[in-house]
Amino acid sequence: MKRRTIVLLFGLVALTVIVALVVTLVLRSQPAAVEPPAEERFGERAVELYFSNIQRDPDAVCDRVFAVERTVAADMPKVEAALRALLAGPSSEERALGYSSFFSSATAGAVRAVRTSGDTVYLDLRDSREALSGANSSCGSAALLAQLERTAAANGDYSRVIVAFDGDPEPFYEWLQIGCIPENEYCDAEPFERES
Asked: Which of 45, 47, 89, 134 could form an S-S bond across to 74 if both were Cys, CB 3.0 to 4.6 Å?
């Protein structure tokens, strides 16, 4: 009788171990539920924007930019929300801390569309040359492009931003005195014509 009880107990222990292993393996193979950060659950999320800052860069290196954190609505792709916030320019508090940009309230509504493909962001703006006065100098264009590119990189896996005015990149890059070169896909307008 003792032997039968021992065999039965051994069998139950072995069965329990096997069931526990199976349950563990099944649970590990299930993707973990990833809860979004609290701010995204409440319709907002943090983004990083990049602006020039004379206090942090007294040498005023044209393409040196610094991050600020903003909270934006979570109702659009993160890179789009960040670029729309960037185009509104530094807040009054950020300006008081030395942040500056050619972007301001005059360019706040300039975004027509934001599309992405691979590591590239296609940013279509209303023609904002008048509001961006001075950004077409050599230093101004370096600062403007650095702010756009660093903001896009910080808010997604993007290494370049190609900009168009009213669906055509050529006027933008001619205005910046860069021209149509490989880095801006020779001002190819086709990506700006695609539906989002």
From this structure: 45
Q: What is the pTM of this model?
A: 0.79
Which of the residues in the chain have pLDDT under 50? 30-35, 196
Long-range contacts at 90-96 (CB < 8 A, ≥ 24 apart): 90/51, 94/51, 94/68
Q: Are strands 66-73 and 44-53 parallel, antiparallel or unpaired?
A: antiparallel
| Per-residue model confidence as pLDDT tens digits over 116-149 | 999 999 999 999 999 999 999 999 999 999 999 9
* CA 95 and chain centroid, separation: 22
Three-class DSSP labels, the chain: CHHHHHHHHHHHHHHHHHHHHHHHHHHHHCCCCCCCCHHHHCCEEEEEEEEEECCCCCCCCCCCCEEEEEEEECCCCHHHHHHHHHHCCCCHHHHHCCEECCCCCCCCCCEEEEEEECCEEEEEECCCCCCCCCCCCHHHHHHHHHHHHHHHHHCCCCCEEEEEECCEHHHHHHHCCCCCCHHHHHHCCHHHHCCC
Give pLDDT tens digits for 24-39: 665 565 444 444 555 5
